[in-house]
Structures are given as structure tokens and as C-alpha cells.
Design goal:
The structure holds two protein chains of two kinds. By secondary structure, chain A is of the alpha+beta class. A seven-stranded mixed β-sheet of chain A has the order 8-10-7-11-9-12-13. Chain A is globular. Chain A starts with 9 loop residues before the first helix and ends in a 7-residue tail after the last helix. Chain B is α/β, with parallel strands linked by helices. Chain B has a single domain (about 5-230), classed as Rossmann fold, CATH 3.40.50. Chain B has helices spanning about 15-25, 70-80, 90-95, 150-160, 220-230, and strands at about 5, 30-35, 45-50, 80-85, 100-105, 110-120, 135-145, 145-150, 165-170, 190, 200. In chain B, helix 1 packs across helix 5 (about 220-230). The longest helix of chain B has 14 residues, at about 220-230. The chains are: A alpha+beta, B alpha/beta. The interface of A and B includes residues 155, 244, 336, 337 and 421 of A.
Chain lengths: ~750, ~230
Amino acid sequence: MISNSPKITPELVAEHGLKPDEYQRVLDLIGREPSLTELGIFSAMWNEHCSYKSSKVHLRTLPTKGPWVIQGPGENAGVIDIGDGLACVFKMESHNHPSYIEPYQGAATGVGGILRDVFTMGARPIACLNALSFGDPKHPKTRHLVSGVVAGIGGYGNSFGVPTVGGSVRFHARYDGNNLVNAMAVGIAQKDKIFYAAASGVGMPIVYLGSKTGRDGIHGASMASAEFGEDSEAKRPTVQVGDPFSEKLLLEACLEIMHKGCVIAIQDMGAAGLTCSAVEMGAKGDLGVTLDLDKVPCREQGMNAYEMMLSESQERMLMVLKPEKEKEAEAIFRKWGLDFAIVGETTPGKRFIVRHGGDVMADLPIKELGDQAPEYKRPWVNAAKPAVLDADEVEAPMGVADALEKLIATPDLCSKRWVWEQYDHIILGNTVQRPGGDAAVVRVENGPKGLALTTDVTPRYCEADPFEGGKQAVAECWRNLTAVGARPLAVTDNLNFGNPERPEIMGQFVGCIRGIAEACKALAFPVVSGNVSLYNETKFPGEDLGRAILPTPSIGGVGLLDDFTKSATLAFKRAGEAILLVGETTGWLGQSVYLRDLCGREEGAPPPVDLVEERENGDFVRALILDGTATAAHDLSDGGLAVALAEMAMASGIGAALTAAPDDIPAHAYWFGEDQARYLVSVPAAQVKAVLERAQAASVPVWAIGTTGGDALTLGDERPILVTILRERFEGWLPAYMAGELPQA
Amino acid sequence: MKSAVVVFPGINRERDMARTLALISGREPAMVWHADTALPAGTDLVVIPGGFSYGDYLRCGAIAARSPIMDAVRGFAAQGGLVLGVCNGFQILCEAGLLPGVLMRNENLRFICRDVYLRVERSDTPFTRGYNAGQVIRVPVAHGEGNYIADGETIARLEGEGRVMFRYSSPDGMIDPNWNHNGAINAIAGIVNERGNVLGMMPHPENHVESALGVTDGRGLFAGLVEVLDRAA
């Protein structure tokens, strides 16, 4: 008989984040009042973070298949075939709530968690990326959060020994109360040696691996499943503490036991720790699991069953072991100085039974806890679509040259060198393209293959029109991979939104998913893994509704280069080359950075994404890169044509002279509009004619718009700007801001 | 060249180093575990690579310096064997007493990963014979604690005896605080012991050896060692 002390009160149920109807479901399911440990287990498994109860029904609509997909969503990470018997294993995951409460440890353990997701499948991590969203630079907390998050990401990845090769950083007041930290990890495995979470075989030993269990991170997943209020500071104890040193040992030990054939199933202990990993392994394998908590290695004395089941101590794994390999596996873990303890076994009964001190502390049906958790079809509404903003209605506040100088020194468009120089981006000796380009490129093993990697989303577009914004996030990711010459293969999505119980937020979520699905289908770019982070909002005192973040579905993309030496960079290569603009330019200023940061207006419909054009233009550019015609390539995104040209000039130190804007488009709209499906390439002057003919044959719109050379960038009749001045402004803002040299609020 | 790469728990650039040694010497190095007590027979170069041995939770390199294998490394060095320590390896050699001084937090208190320029101070040593004296090479750094310091007397001796092998410099070889990213005294990036057979340096020459990845300025160090050791063998 399970002891029922303390008594389960409605308050206790509410504290565990379970709604009254969910608690009723618990009672119906087990036919009695749960013990406190059981209540904790339900709370851990049925919270939004672990169960995806609000999002599951929509996530199912995403395209997840393709001939090269080995494993889609539902496992620790997605797996795709990259040829030669190799597989690429990758996923992106958020650590938003913890990183706001305790930026260094929150971000560090976010990196640690996503790395475990990748190596738990048998892959050696080869690269990390991230997507970071912070509040208004003028907000008093922002600088502290940037500093802590960046140090935490670096602190973990640098010590673990994986290069952090790319990412994105943005600022907006809507993230004042909830910053976003999305971390992506990419690994390489032998295609026929992928390890999965589903247990198989009855009576198989369940082994606890890694670091000891402490009282840190209890209820971390539940904390991440609620909005913040005035008490968010008090939630600091729910944030875990990372130990990259132990994780590096855990990586080596895990890969070694996998290599030696000791593993039936393996699952990392992430959110909801021991509970979630044990339940998932059993539920996925249609087996029961019995755990004996007396065997769990603990860091502190006197931990009770409730604490052990909910601890989110880091750098731990749970494995179903081949019994005959026990001695061999244990010796490997001892060599690496890590804990190895048999803590349970698989059973035929589909029950999840937890014993401690001779008592049964929990006895629950495993399927209902795991893959048959509650699921909601939450009500949602579509926000009205904003009207298209005519460029003629936007008065230019300054000349084009002045505007460019200002824009490249804005928080969103300035150089992020201050950030990525704190990440070791060259360790492992395979980094071909470092941060700062369209996509990072890493060599696969000894080559010649290379992987292109990027993370993208434009939250202001998603806010204005979730469907178009969702499409655009995928299209931009695809474009960035294409711009380095890679063939885009698959994505991982990290969907960050506010409170899903609000129909307008749920409407953003549904709209973005539809857009993502449409773009992924059209571009043959399936979603193979992902993560949903809801409740990213904060209720401020005296306000009825929480303030939600901008809808931010981060898309992490992976592309393949058959020969990494053929990848293109955005830097101009030499003077006297022709600059070609690929794709239609209409001068779309609605929701542009120009409109927001120079005109102070966040208005209009975002630029529409024509997926057929995307594909045609992208395929054309990729072919130019791979056959060696294009000497440089760059996609056009935030800030439009002028900013892209400036980036190509700054990366090379070579200037350029451009023809003036056409008569039918206002100059500021031509230079700063954000029309989609566009690229810039440079080609030797002698090849322009041939390229234009090829473009015509492929029905791809291409214009020769200028010539490289000199030490200044000259946009039509505007005053020339020295490339050195551009660089100074581009590189200046972030270091000055972080040094506290800019005015704060 | 028969090299041995020492691996402590938390070292993480051992693969980079092993790959470079194999690439340039044509021979795979032996990977030696920290708990071992002897180096493989015939070893003629010991390399302590970069990383975060024992997490660097104590002073960098302090725990690794007391590992069982370090007695063998000390013995090897005492016999005149060549020892190269890079990044965490440099920190470990300092903690082990094989090199003087200590590496403090970078002046700006942040981890820094970027390419830097080094002026090669001498070319008449086994470690630097692949370069010309005064030559400027471009190699990456990736460290949070690379700010070299020692007491005044030690610095005077190092300088007087010509034991500074590399200094952070501008691309044209000028010693300039703007090009000394970590604030090291006298812009010191690498030093040797009195006998000249133990080199410690913060930058990572092993990461700049392949033309397909860009710069190859790190090759000279390894190519020079191969020449010396293969001629001796």
C-alpha cells in the first residue's frame, strides 16, 4: 500500500501546475488518491514542457519525411543520411526560463542538455549554434542577461570541446521579461550505429550513468511551463548547475560503451530527470519499469523519493544494458571516474514502479504517463492581417548613405563579434567558415564533405503575419545554406511563444506552424526534430494580461556540401568583378528594419514569400557557386540590398560602385526594402553575359548592378562611404554597449 | 618522430593535436592516459594539448600537474626530451614546475577565440627552426586564462636568456598593447625552459596547418620538430 502523507489538497495540486480536470484524470486513471511522489511524477510528465499537450496536435501537421530522413521527431534528436555510411544527428532546444532567472547557468545547462540529446544517439558532437533574443538594450537588465548568457554558452561549449560556429542575436522590447536561449547541437554518427530510447526485453538491467543526483533543478520543467510573475527571482533554485567537465567524460564513456555493444536503449536525463527518462524508455518499448531509488547515486544525504524523481541534476544518463556486458560497461565508466549503478529493470507489466527504503513510493500506468499524456485542442484566433504599406507612404528621414551608416550600427544589424569571440569556434579543427557569414561550414571528418549550419527567424514578420513569418523563417534558413553552396537537407524547429491558453497566442502558434509546414514541403526541407517553449510571457504588477514575447519559431537548418572547398563566402574577392542581384526587388518596406529602427514604425504586412521563386533563385545561385562562376555570394535579409552590399565589402575590405535605384522605386525602398528570395553574387566581368543568358533560360531575374573595387561603397549617386568607416561603425556598437559606454535607460 | 600526446580528463584538443602530428610527421602519435606511469618506449616528443583538465575548476592545470604521468614527463624532460605544451598544456607545465610563471585570467576577463599574430623571436631552437627570427605568423587563440605573468626577476632572466619564443604582435611585427589580446607581460605568448627543450605556448599552431581550411602558419613548428627528430633517429 502506498503511503499517503502528506494529504493531497487542491492547493498542492495547483502548486504542481496540474489543472483540476487534469487532476481528475489522474484520479480516474489510478482509482485512488496519488502519493506525493506520484503527484510529482504526474506534474513532471504532464507539464507543457515534457508533454507538448498544447502543441502536439499541430506539430503532427509538419512534414517530417524524406528519402534522407533516418529518424524524424520523437527521439532525442533527428537523424539524416549524409552518405558514405554517415548520419548527421541534430536538434535545437530552448532554455529560456532558466536563462532569464540565472543567465550563466541557465544558458550553460541549455548547451549541456542539447549536447546530451545528440550524443545519447551515438553521435559525436561536431558543432553548436544558438539563437538568442534579448530585451531592449535600454532595459536595465539586458546587459546583464547578454553578458551572462554568452558567458554561459561559451563556458559550457568551450570546456566540453565543441566548436560554437554560428547563431543569431536580436534585441526587442518584447523580450524584456523573457529572453530566449535556443541552443542547437549537431553530431556525426555511423548510420548503422544509431541508438534509440525504446527499451526492449523483459528483466533487462536499467543503469544510471554519469554524475550524482542532487537537489538542483527540482521542478525545472514545471517552472518552464508557466508564465513569469513578480516571483520569478524566487525561482532561482529551480535552475540547474552545469558541469561541462563531467559531460565531456560522459560523452567519451557513452561513446565507448556504445562502441563495445553494451547498450540496448539509452536516454539522457534532461527535463524531469529520472522520471522522464525512465518513463520514456519504458513507454516507447511497451514495457514496465521498476526503479529502486536506494541504488541511485546521490550527492546529498537524506534525499527522499520525491526529490530524486524530480531532480534535474545535469550530466546524467539512463541506459538499458545488455546483461552480459555489465562488467565491461562498468569498467569503462570507472575509468572515466563516473558513477555506474544498476537502479532497476524492465518488466512485462507496463507499470512504472518506484521503490525507496523498502516502500513502494509510486505505482502508475506507464503508457498514460508517457506517450498517452493529455492532449489539448486549445482555441485559437487569427489576428487581422495588417495592410500592405506602400513605400511612397514612408518618408525617408535621411539620405541613403546616412541611413546605411546608422543601420549597420543598430543592435540587430551590427557585428556580433563580441559574442562569438567568446565561443571557441575552431576546436576540432574542422571549421571551414567561421561565424559572421550566411551559414557556418564544418568539414565532416577528413572531408571532402562539409555541413552548412544556420539558425534563422524574423520575429517581427511572425508577429505581423504568423503564416508568412513561419514561411519566411524556413525560407531564410534555406537561403542561408544555399548562399554558401550547400544543398539544404532538413531542419530542427524551436518554437517559442507566449501563453497558449490565450487564443491570440495560440493563433500565432498555429499560423507559424502552417507557414513552416508549407515552406518545408515546398522546399523539400523536412522537420526532423524540435522543441516547443510556451508561456514565454510575464505578468507585470497592475496588468491583467501577461506581456508575451514576439512569436519566435527559430529554425535550425543543415545542408550538405559534397566538397567543402567549393563553399562560397560573402567577402568580395577582387576588384573589377561584376555584382549581380538575383531575385525581384519591389522596395518592400513593411516590417523592415529600416522602417522600425530609422522611422520608428513597426507597421505593415511583412514581405510575402513566393516559395517557387525561392527555389528557382536558390537553385540558380547554388549552381553558380558549385561550378566556380560565383566568387562571392550573400543572401539578402534584414536591411535589404544596401546592408548586404556593406557586409560583402566589410568582409573583404574591397569597395564597390553600384548603379542608382531604378526610377519606379523610391531610393530608400530600393536600398533597404526586404523583398524575399534575393541574393547577391560577384562574378568575373567576362562572365556576366553568359550568366545573364543562363538566368534568362532558367527564368530567374538577374541584374548586373555594379562593380567591385576601390576603398569605398558608392550606392548610385549617394556619397561614397569608406569601407573602413563602415567597419568601424559595424564593429563599434556591441563592445561599446557591453562596456557600459552607451546611455542606458 | 615518435610523439606521445598526454590525455588528462577534460583535455579536449587532443584530437586536433593528434591529427596534426600525424599529418605532418606521417606517424600517428601514441595517446597516453593520465593515470599511466610511463611513456611509450622510444618517445621523442611529448605533447600536452589544450582543454580544460579537471574542468579547470581549481587553478588551471593545477590538478593535472599532479597526475601520475607527470613524473614520467618530468623525467623525460630532465633527460633532454622535447616537451610541447599548448594552451592548457602550457598552464600544466607551469603548474608542474617545468616552466616558470603562471597564466592569469585574460585582461578583459572574457574567453577569447580569434586569430592573433605572433612574432617569432628566435629560429635557432628545435621548436622554431621552421621559421625565421622576426617572422610574423598568424595562429588562433582560444583561452580565458592566457595572461602570462612572473616576478620581475624571472621575467628579466627569461628575456636575458632569450627564452621568449613567441610574442603577440601586430601583423607587421610591432609589439603593441592593441594586439596583445590577453594582457600578457611583455606580450609573451610562448617560452622555453632553461635547457630549451620544454616549450609552453598559449596559441594553437595545430589548428592552422591545412591550406583547405585557410592559414597554414602553424605548420612550421611541427615541420621543424619532425626535421630535428627524424634526423636524430
